[in-house]
Amino acid sequence: MSEACHCDTGRPFDRCCGPILDGSRPAATALALMRSRYTAYVLRDEAYLLASWYPETRPERIDFGGARWTGLVVKDRTDGRAWDRAGSVGLVAHYEEDGEARVLQEVSYFIQEDQRWYYLEGVHGPFGAE
């Protein structure tokens, strides 16, 4: 069995985000895509992050900077199920940079086209208590 997935589900990586990152299966929901994208940031998988970003809002490159991602908490979600066209996920992501613990709060927006979920954009918070 593989190590626990970085997205904090408690499930093994090879039965959680691993198959999404390696293209074995698509993310079935906006939440699954968000979790896989967080894991891709942990692993610095630029190719996956760019491929899962909606083409009209996708940057040319990902700037990982010095961030080391240390934890993910899903706060809420709206729609984003397999049959929805769009959805959003509120999240708190913990990371360390320059020896300091930091927090990113974001509401991530997703769109589904041709049975594939894409990250559209994120709006940063704070949005309430951590």
Automatic annotation (TrEMBL):
Signal peptide: none annotated. Residues 29-122 form the YchJ-like middle NTF2-like domain. InterPro entries: NTF2-like_dom_sf, YchJ-like_M. This is YchJ-like middle NTF2-like domain-containing protein.
